[in-house]
Amino acid sequence: MKEDSMPELRKRGSNRNRQQAMVRVAVLPLIIFVTSVLATIPSATPIIIRHDVSDEDYVALADSLDLSAAVVRFTRTDMAGTLIAQDWILSAAHVAQEVSPGGSLLWGSGDSLRVERVVLHPLWLEEGFPHDIALIKLTTPVEGAVTIPLYLDSDEEGRLVTLIGNGDLGDGTTGPTGNDGRFRAATNRIDNLSDSWLAWRFDGPNDPGTTPMEGISGPGDSAGPAFIQRDGRYFVAGVSSGQDTQATGGREGRYGVTEYYTRVSAYSDWIASVVASF
Fold first, then answer.
1. N or C: which terminal CB in the chain sees fewer CB atoms within 10 Å?
2. Do 241 and 94 contact (CB within 8 A), yes or no?
3. Domains of the chain: residue spans and CATH
4. What is the pLDDT of residues 150-187, one digit of tens each?
5. Considering only CA atoms, which of 128, 151, 158, 153 is closest in space to residue 35?
6. In this model, does residue 95 exceed pLDDT 90?
7. Nearest-CA neighbor of 18 among 252, 249, 254?
């Protein structure tokens, strides 16, 4: 696997940035896979769902999983990351760069968490969004928090992922349409991967690869987690980073877009070294 070429692409920010009418343009590498050459490009990323499945089913799926308790937010509708320890949050660099030491984040029903430090990956660049991963250390451990272990194996391709978020809602025919702050969960299947990305397509109901609870993340869900379940336990395998909208004429959250998450297993050594350093 290698990365080549640098096509242009629109990158989504958080709902906070959208409210400030900020538009980002980013360039991301064209990923060429060994088995089948495939051009793919990441843009940034509540959950966008199938139009033929009840929205309440997606809400019920989120409610049935003990995963939203591991999610930390900027606001009621903007993700900040996932608790991987009682005092560490796994985030995306393009999101964590907006966090300042001494600032606060939200957890659970609205508890305030104080930030001690923010560590962006040393090779992260805002132009192009390479190495879009970061860690946020809290001043005080979150007692009783649900923490999610990292997925460390390199066998992600073909595996089912579970996504959870509470950013913008919508379906594959409309794209993002609004926000009610409710958590939703959806599934997808990892179609491709590179040294640093996990990727999957938002399939329509009649596409052969679709899942019964097919979905993708939406604006406000950047830095949110993608989980892989193994032996009855969930692991965080990806961090929401971007979405390729070339197949949909630049329209986000429609059937046919490809979603990109930073591949956690590729950065496990860096994560461990940072956590051990502070």
1. C
2. yes
3. 1-278 (2.40.10.120)
4. 999 999 999 999 999 886 789 999 999 988 888 999 99
5. 158
6. yes
7. 252
